[in-house]
Amino acid sequence: MVKKTALAVLLAALSAPLLSAAAGAAPLPKGIGKLSHGELRRLFPGQFKVVVRGYTVRMKAHGNGRLEGHYKGLSDTGRWSLRGSRLCIMMKDWLDGKTTCASVHRASGKWLKTSSIRFRKM
Question: Which domain does 63 fall in, by range?
Answer without folding.
Answer: 2-121
